[in-house]
Design brief:
Blueprint: H1 2-20, H2 27-45, H3 48-51, H4 66-72, E1 74-79, E2 87-89, E3 92-94, H5 96-107, E4 111-115, H6 123-128, E5 134-140, E6 150-151, E7 156-158, E8 160-165, H7 175-180, E9 193-197, H8 201-213, E10 218-222, H9 228-237, E11 242-246, H10 247-256, E12 260-265, E13 270-276, H11 281-294, H12 298-309, H13 311-319, H14 334-344, H15 348-359, H16 379-384, H17 393-412, H18 418-431, H19 433-447, H20 453-461, H21 466-469, H22 482-501, H23 510-513
Parallel strand pairs: 1-4, 1-5, 9-10
Antiparallel strand pairs: 2-3, 5-13, 6-13, 7-13, 8-11, 8-12
Amino acid sequence: MIKQNINGILLFQMARDLKYKRSIFGTKTATVLLYSAFLLLVSCGRSSTHQASQLETPVNPVHRDLDEITKDGKLTVLMGNSSSSYFIYRGRPMGFEFELLELFARENNLELEVVIPDDLNDVFDLLNEGKGDIVAAGLTVTKERAKEVAFTDYLMTTRQVLVQRKPAGWETMTWDAIRRQLLRSQLSLIGKEVYVRKNSSYYSRLQNLSDEIGGDIHIVTVSGDVETEELIRRVAVGDIDYTVADEHIAQLNATYYANLDVGTPISFPQQLAWAVRQNSPELKTMLNDWIVAARKKRDYNHLVMKYYKNQKAYLLRSASGFHSQYGGRISIYDEAFKKHATEAGWDWRLIASVAYQESKFNNELESWAGARGLMQLLPETARRFGGDSIMTAEQSIVVGINYLNYLNKFWLREIPDSATRLPFVLASYNAGIGHVVDAQRLAAKYYNDKFNWKIVSYFLLNKNQRRFYSDNVVKHGYCRGAEPVKYVSEIINRFEQYKKLIPVGIEPNDLVASR
C-alpha cells in the first residue's frame, strides 16, 4: 500500500513535468503510458468507499428542454459569485462565464436571467427542480457529479492547487528560503487541516489524495454559502492555513494577495464545464455545438485574456472598491442613493440599478431625445419634479426618486402589492404612463387580465404593430415597446443581483480600505 502511494506521488510529479516538457517517447505515447499507469495505481490504491455513489436519493429532474426554454424566451442560469464566473463591477454584471452566456443567449434570442443560490451545495438539486436551466459556476467535471447532471463540452481545463501563505517576513527573504518553508510535496498534507466546501470537487480530490498518500488529511468543511474566493481570503489574512482552488482562480487571487503561494498542484488537469439536467439532451447538444465553435472565435479568446491572463486589469478591479467581492460599492454615488432612497422608502440598490440602466452612472450623459444626467430626465420632467435642465448627480437622484414616487402612487391605486407593481412603475418611467395603460387595456380586452405583467408586457412589446396600436382601446398610439420591456427586465434582474451581492449595510472591505 505504501509503495503504491509513493508511486502515486511520483506519477503525479511526472504528470506535472509532462505538461511542460516533451517526453523522449513523444507527447501522445507518453500521455497514453502515463494514463495507463495512473489507472493501474488508482485502482489498487483507492478505497471502495470512494468508489461508491454518494447519492442518497435517485435523480428525478423536471422536464424542461430546449423547446420549453425557447417558448418561454428565458434562459435561467444558476451561478456562483466569483471573480471569474460572475460578479458586479461598477454596477455592471461581469465574469467569464456570465459574458459567454450573454453571447449564447443573445445569439439565440433568449433573455438571460441569473440566479445566485444561497447555498452552492444545493445547486444540482435546484437545477433538477427546475429553478435553473444551466449551472455555470466553474464546475469541474467528475464521474460522481455526472450521476446527477449532464455536463457540456469543456470551457477550459485547469488543475487544483493548494493555497497557502508565504512565511512571515517573506518580503525580505530569498525565494529559495521562502520555498523551503512551503508545502511542496503532497505527503506534507498528512495531518494538516484544509478547508473546503463538502460538495465541491476539492473535497472529493482531498479524500482521494488522502488515500493515495496513505495518511489522513484533516478536511474541514464549510457551509455552502462560502465561496472559494472567501476561503482564499481567509488564508491570506491568517484565519485558516490551507484551502484548495482551481489554478486559474488561485493565480488571479494571488495577484491581489501577494502573501499567497499557489504553486503546489494536487490534481491532474481537469475539465471545467456547464451542467444541465440529464433529460435536457437538446439543450446540451445546442450548448455543445456553440461551445466548440466559440472556442475557435476571437470573442472567446478575448474573454480568456480579459479574465484570466490580464492580471493588471484584475488587480485594478479588485482594488477599486467597486467590486462586489472586494469592497462592495456599486458607484461613487452610493451614499447619495442610500440617503435619498431610504428617506423615500425605496431600496437604494433599486435606485442604483435604475441609474445604471439610464446613464451607466455618467451624470454628463445626454440622450438623443434630450434626457440628461444620472437619472436621464427630460427637462420638462425635471422641472415638474423639482429640478431643472442642468443638475448635479445628487440633484438628479432626488428628482428621479420624486418621479418614481409619483409613478408608484399612480399605480398603487390599482396594484397594492409592491412586487407586482414594480414592473409597471419602471415601464412608466421609461415609456410614460400612457403607453403602459394602453398595454393594460389590450391585456384586459384579449386576456381579461390587466395586472399580470407578463401578459401586459406582451402587448407593450407588440405596440409597434398596427393591429395593436390602432385598436380602438388604445389612446396613445404607436410605441417601440421592446425598449421598455427590456428596460424593466434588466433593471429588476440587476436589482436582484445587487441584493444578493451587495448587502444593505455593507462597508468597504478592510483590506481594500487599507490599500
